[in-house]
Design brief:
Pfam families: MFS_2. The protein is an all-alpha fold. It has 17 helices and 4 strands. 45% of the residues are buried.
Length: 469
């Protein structure tokens, strides 16, 4: 990093320290972080299972067990790394940025290793190799993702600017998703079959893009808020942290809301396949659903900052969730729609819950401030890792919900046309059930989550005065 460049556009902000003013450079740098994450994360999510089954010959059940074990291990790795980060002191380049730079190199190398295939070895070797390389990659992913996610709370203390960072992060993930979905299939498949050499080529390509993005994130981002634990002579301890976490009402409410929201996403994702394939008889319409999910996020992104500036994160998010509840509830009472009509109406619901996805990282940064106000401890890594831990546990536990729900309504794989009661059950899983689940999320955010716009602004102001003093 060029020190002369960093001395431009400086301003005095806190405790007399000179730092560059928050701006587009920070936003783009933070976007690059999740672009780097998702260049490879999306590739793994979409194609690793088919690589394991079709190239390495591992059974789908064994792959499922591996993924569940790995998710639980990753959750523990998140907590461990978050606590480790919070015990480190800020250096020349901050507290979090250096770890993004240091660990990005072993992370992308481990990612490429997952897709190296040596022909002619035993099934036992391939399974062991999958366990070692996949769990290694997941662990190293934590070492980059935890400091990256934690860094948002120290880039700026302004609640509206934090919302902008959250939306730019989502935009980075969306760009990576579009890029991987468009490019990867053209590289990986030959004659409609996955090719071992080509998927290694794709992994190498996305690893290079990922590494370049991480380096860009490191160079363009600036940490402006430093730890005040030592200045206040407050020592961080596990017991003090745990007491603070248990008293942190915003954190607990967001953890519960996010877990339930994850159940909603998993249920929708699973039910939609059967809804369009069996109920509407139009599996091709699923591609339109995928497009609309991206489009609604892209429409919501430029609206997020001005809406939050005027109304607040809690207020905007809860309104969007209520819109989703109304749309999916209404769809339940419109069973005679065509597939395209259903997608068009449900897109309004997608637009509603897009704001939750856009705001969630900004919610976490506010919760970190609340924890500091409550305990006197600045523990960005710990709070972010607790949130990440809950998401991964939720993914592991909630993974079977879709299959269980489909089985519960009587789906029979041996029938070419499902019974009418089963079709009705599938339609209910795609409409009324999501509406009820999202109603619970709405009530948590609207009635239980305490950080309204005014309280968030007051919290930021109180912490600024405390730091300056």
């Amino acid at each position: 990093m060029n020190p002369q460049t960093d001395l431009k556009n400086l301003k005095v902000e806190q405790s007399g320290a000179q730092i560059r003013k928050f701006g587009l450079r920070d936003k783009f740098g933070y976007l690059l972080g999740d672009l780097g994450n998702d260049f490879f994360f999306m590739l793994v999510g979409a194609y690793l299972m088919v690589y394991y089954t079709d190239i390495l010959g591992i059974s789908p059940v064994a792959v499922g067990v591996l993924f569940m074990i790995a998710r639980l291990w990753d959750a523990l790795a998140d907590i461990t790394w978050g606590r480790f980060i919070d015990t480190r002191k800020s250096g020349k380049h901050g507290k979090f940025r250096p770890w993004i730079f240091r660990m990005s190199f072993p992370l992308v190398i481990s990612g490429v290793l997952m897709f190296i295939h040596i022909p002619g070895l035993s099934d036992g070797f391939y399974l062991a190799y999958a366990y070692v390389t996949y769990i290694l990659w997941g662990t190293l992913y934590s070492t980059v993702n935890i400091p990256y996610g934690s860094m948002a709370s120290v880039i700026t203390s302004n609640p509206v600017e934090r919302t902008t960072l959250s939306t730019f992060r989502t935009l980075g993930a969306t760009i990576a998703q579009l890029f991987v979905n468009a490019i990867a299939p053209l590289i990986i498949f030959v004659d409609n079959k996955i090719d071992a050499n080509r998927i290694l080529l794709a992994a190498t390509l996305f690893a290079i893009l990922s590494l370049a993005s991480y380096i860009g994130c490191f160079r363009l981002s600036t940490e402006r808020i430093t730890s005040y634990n030592s200045d206040n002579k407050t020592k961080s301890s596990l017991s003090a942290t745990l007491k603070g976490l248990l008293k942190n009402k915003p954190l607990i409410s967001i953890l519960i809301a996010s877990l339930i929201f994850m159940v909603f996403l998993i249920l929708i994702s699973s039910a939609n396949v059967y809804l369009f394939k069996d109920y509407f008889g139009s599996a091709s319409a699923l591609s339109l659903v995928g497009v609309m999910q991206v489009v609604t996020v892209l429409i919501a992104i430029p609206l997020a900052k001005p809406l939050v500036a005027r109304f607040g994160k809690k207020e905007v998010t809860s309104t969007g969730l209520l819109l989703t509840v109304i749309v999916y509830g209404m769809l339940y009472f419109l069973p005679d729609l065509t597939a395209n009509q259903f997608v068009a109406i449900s897109a309004i619901g997608m637009f509603g819950y897009a704001f939750f996805n856009l705001m969630i990282w900004a919610f976490v940064t506010d919760i970190i401030d609340y924890h500091e106000s409550l305990t006197g401890l600045r523990e960005d890594g710990t709070i972010y890792s607790v949130y990440s831990f809950s998401r991964k546990v939720g993914q592991a536990v909630a993974g079977g919900i879709g299959g269980f729900a489909i089985g519960l309504v009587g789906y029979n794989v041996n029938l070419e046309v499902q019974e009418q009661k089963t079709l009705h059950g599938i339609y209910m899983l795609g409409t009324l059930a999501p509406a009820i689940i999202m109603l619970v999320v709405f009530l948590i955010i609207a009635l239980i989550y305490p950080l309204s716009k005014n309280r968030t602004l007051q919290l930021a102001e109180d912490l600024k005065k405390k730091r300056n003093s």
